[in-house]
Amino acid sequence: MLKKVNLLIIFLILIFSIFNILINIDQCSGKENNFFYVGGIGTGNYTTIQGAINESGDNDTIYVYNGIYNEKIIINKSINLVGFDKNSTILSGNNSLYIIFIKSSWINITGFTIQNGKMGIYISDVNYSFNNISKNILQDNWEGIRLYKSSNNKIINNYFSNNKNLGVILDESKNNILYNNRFFNSNKAIILNRWSDGNLILKNNLTDNFIGLSLYSSFRNLIDKNFIANCTNGLYLSYSTNNTIIENIIEFNDRYGIFLISSYDNEITQNYFFNNYQDIKKGPEPPKIKAPGFELIIFVGSLLYILFIRKKLR
Fold it and tell me: Which residues on neighbouring strands pair with residue 220, listed in sequence order?
């Protein structure tokens, strides 16, 4: 029953996400959609991305050709920002505070390498929401993406590599979707910090980070079908309650698969643990994992030997 409910929740959220993306692309049906081109050899093409943004309006598309663009970009309109190829259309921040600062809603960003900034993409306002960040490479930043008090955004199919502090942080940000991203070689891959509630973390790959996923004072999040491996700690929950952690693969982590500190009434079920130093560390107090209980599927030694442990902890 629990699995069916979670599948229904995921289905509804993904349908909602697709609907929002379609709205993003065609939000103002009565307005002509204009295209602006940056780089390339076309007559009248812009030389800077910010110059094209300044001339654009809501629902327009800015298409950026291959090249390295050393810019700090502010997007304050509901536009589509599209790179020709994510491997060769490069936004470089030269260690600036941000590379892309989103100051609007209903923005699509896709097809870029975003590198060498303190923050690759920054969204910071309760009024800036329903943005879609997809199919980008974010690398060699201090932080890949930071959301502060921003909700209902989608971060989908991105690759995060060598971001020194973290890949994505949600700070006081609710109802966001992180789906099918890959995180590699950061201090922390994903952080849900301070009242970041109701987020969906689904089918992400988190490998070779110090901490894969960290929750602090965050509630009612669904963490489902992620692959978390070769980290020091896989999942770290602190003062976080009523989260659901289900059907994740958690393996080859140097210390703990899941570490719980003062985190109660979380549902941890149907996860696969293999070759962690310790699968679950409960901290000084029992974690009070809620019904239907504490269900681990632990692979010990060989894949042919499976130990099922099912307990109910109140």
Answer: none
Would you say residue 30 lies in a domain? Answer: no
**Does the pLDDT of residue 307 top 70, yes or no?**
no
Residue 170 has pLDDT above 80, yes or no: yes
Q: Considering its fold, how many domains does the chain have in total? A: 1
Q: Within a domain: residue 216?
A: yes
The whole-number pLDDT of residue 164 equals: 96
Cis, peptide link before residue 284, omega less than 30° from 0: no
What's the token pair of residue 273? 């643990």
DSSP character at residue 7: H
For the cut 50, the answer to whether the pLDDT of residue 160 exceeds it is yes
Positive or negative, the CA dihedral 15, 16, 22, 25 is negative
**Under 8 Å CB-to-CB from 81, ≥6 apart: which residues?**
49, 53, 62, 64, 75, 107, 108, 109, 110, 112
The DSSP secondary structure of 217-251, one letter per residue, reads S--S-EEES-EEES-SEEEEEES--S-EEES-EEE
pTM to 2 decimal places: 0.85
CA-wise closest residue to 144 among 175, 172, 103, 178: 178
Q: What is the 3-state secondary structure (H, E, C) of 15-43?
A: HHHHHHHHHHHCCCCCCCCCEEEECCCCC
Q: Print the domain residue range for 312.
A: 165-314
* Mean pLDDT score, 58-86: 98
Q: How far is CA 65 from the centre of its chain?
A: 26
pLDDT class for 190, splitting at 50, 70, 90?
very high
Residue 58 lies in a domain: no
